[in-house]
Each structure stands twice: as C-alpha cells, then as structure tokens.
Design goal:
Structural class: mainly beta
Distance between the termini: 9 Å
Radius of gyration: 11 Å
Largest sheet: 5 strands, antiparallel
Strand order of the largest sheet: 2-1-3-4-5
Order of helices and strands: EEHEEE
C-alpha cells in the first residue's frame, strides 16, 4: 500500500509534509492525486507517519484498497 507523506492544505493549496501536518491539527488536507480529503496519522507499531484518505477511493492509487 502506498503511503502518502505529503498533501495539499485545503485553505491555501500549499504543499505540506507529514511532520508539519501533525503539528497543524486545525487544518484540512487533500490528496495530491484525487483531491479527496485525507488525514494525518502518527507513526505507530504498524508503520511510519502518513496521510490516509478519509474515505477509501478505489480510483486513486494512493488510497488503501482494503
């Protein structure tokens, strides 16, 4: 499964990396490929910090297909 480490800030179109996004808890983010909403997730025992789609998108190669 691809892991997104950058996304687009909804309010201004700025590109942001996952580390910065985890510090900005009050902002919304979009996927680069499909422009659907994504959320930042902290690193855990399951893997590195990354963005995930709020709703799975089977048409986006960056979305979890499970």
């Amino acid at each position: 499964m691809p892991k997104m480490t950058t996304a687009i800030v909804k309010e201004n179109g700025e590109t942001v990396n996952i580390d910065k996004a985890l510090d900005w808890t009050d902002r919304g983010y979009l996927c680069f490929e499909c422009k659907e909403p994504v959320k930042p997730f902290n690193a855990s025992a399951y893997g590195a910090a990354h963005f995930e789609h709020e709703k799975r998108n089977s048409n986006c190669s960056l979305s979890d297909k499970r």
